[in-house]
Amino acid sequence: MFFNIFQTGIFERQFRRQLLVTLSATLITFCHGIALGWLSPMLPQLLSEKDTPLDFFIDVGQASWLGAAISLGGISGNFSFSYLMNRFGRKVSLYALALPNTCIWFLFYFAQSIEWLYVARVCAGLTGGGMFVVLPIFIGEIADNSIRGRLCSFFTLTMNTGIMVGFIVASHIPYHVIPCAVVGLPVLYLFLATRFPETPQQLLVWSREEEAQRALKFYRHCDGPQVTKQQERDYQKQFDEMRLAIQQRSKDAGSVGLTVSDFCNKRALKAIATGLMLMIAQIFSGTFAFINYMSNIFDAVHTQLDPNTNTIIIGAVQIVGTLASMYLVDRYGRKILLVVSCAGSGLGAAGLGLYAFYAEETEVDLSAYASWLPVTLMALIIFIANVGVVSVTMVVLVELLPQKIRAVATSICLGCLSFFAFTSLKTFPLMMFHFGLAATMWFSASVSALCLFYVVVCVEETKGRSIYD
């Protein structure tokens, strides 16, 4: 299946630079994934006075704030990077993502108190909030319509790969070695980001038409001696379409600017509502909280495998789920993946909740199942979520929103995503502590069922849609 992901076009000559630039740009999501994955295996150590690798240890309340602090940074990152992107362009925003990510590792290394870790997690939120605003739009603008879904899925693939690496290194490598090993990656990312041009759409907005032509030729691989007449015609058609769309948008914006009516028409309201519902599905179905508190979940259900080993297994499952999404998204469309994802993650959460109920509230002997059933159910949840709602949400959001309000509406939706993530990460350990894991899982299953109903009834297919519509 891995090779089938790429066999229909993505390695063809005209798409090769789009792929390489996408891989370069998503290196920052790999770095961010490591910072996300770091928390789950490290949290039990920080909660233990005996095993803590630092000069202090934390309690459950501080642990919940440590988990939730990333979302406070996320809200700031959503809006600050949206302003930065609209004011200074996509490339400057890409450069800026390296700064907070680099700060994370210095703060982890030199941490003298819990406040240092809080600030590090806020920096992780700034990186994540900025990534979710900048990268989907950047990749969406450089990608050809026929491969946009797969290229955008690299965003999730690299982040999930980073999360698994974070699980592994935090489980098996000494605390102070990890920042030393990782801090060079954002520097490498910054260097790679200087090797490709601004998006042609942004250059047209700035009325730099010649540079926009060169940029589009670069991304469509039409700037060499081997370009055929057909490729030249296809390039010219794309550029003319792009220029007319940008000119019309500039004309509309210049005459009246953004108004309330731009957000209150039927198409815009439905697109924003769909975006918000998909954000709810992505966060409150539980998968984001599961990743951050994975080791604690496995410890609560008394699995016979080491909780950190289970966590690493789940990290690998995330990657497989994202690869499956990349194989399916441009073949079968977005909506079917969202339907399957909401249904499957809901059933998995309900099943894990049932197992947790018997493990926590009854004296039923579950030893025959403890070595495989909890990790299997969690693997199902994480796999099926990454096939659809985790990987496809940003693709659908970019394709659904009208072009005129896309940047602002994306920031609004992602600001809500960060707020939802804060609420989830702050309350999840408290819900586990006060109500038990079973009730927490059943809540996640209920949210998945609600989102499934919305997707089936209200979400339209966006496969193959032009981003200029």
Task: Please write out the topology.
Elements: H1 2-7, H2 13-25, H3 27-47, H4 60-88, H5 90-96, H6 98-110, H7 114-142, H8 148-172, H9 177-182, H10 184-193, H11 200-205, H12 209-219, H13 229-255, H14 260-264, H15 266-284, H16 287-292, H17 294-300, H18 307-332, H19 335-361, H20 373-387, H21 389-400, H22 406-435, H23 437-458
Helix pairs in contact: 2-8, 3-6, 3-7, 3-8, 4-5, 4-7, 4-22, 6-7, 6-10, 7-8, 7-22, 8-18, 8-21, 15-21, 15-22, 15-23, 17-18, 18-20, 19-20, 19-23, 20-21, 22-23
Concise account of the structure shown:
The chain has 469 residues and is mainly α. The protein has 23 helices and no strands.
Walk me through the structure.
By secondary structure, this protein is mainly α. The chain folds into 3 domains: 11-196, MFS general substrate transporter like domains (Growth Hormone, Chain: A); 204-248; 264-468, Growth Hormone, Chain: A (Up-down Bundle), CATH 1.20.1250.20. The protein has helices spanning 2-7, 13-25, 27-47, 60-88, 90-96, 98-110, 114-142, 148-172, 177-182, 184-193, 200-205, 209-219, 229-255, 260-264, 266-284, 287-292, 294-300, 307-332, 335-361, 373-387, 389-400, 406-435, 437-458. Helix 19 (335-361) runs antiparallel to helix 20. It is globular and about 75 Å long.
Descriptive keywords:
mainly alpha, globular, Growth Hormone, Chain: A, 23 helices, sugar transport, single chain, 469 residues, transmembrane helix, transport
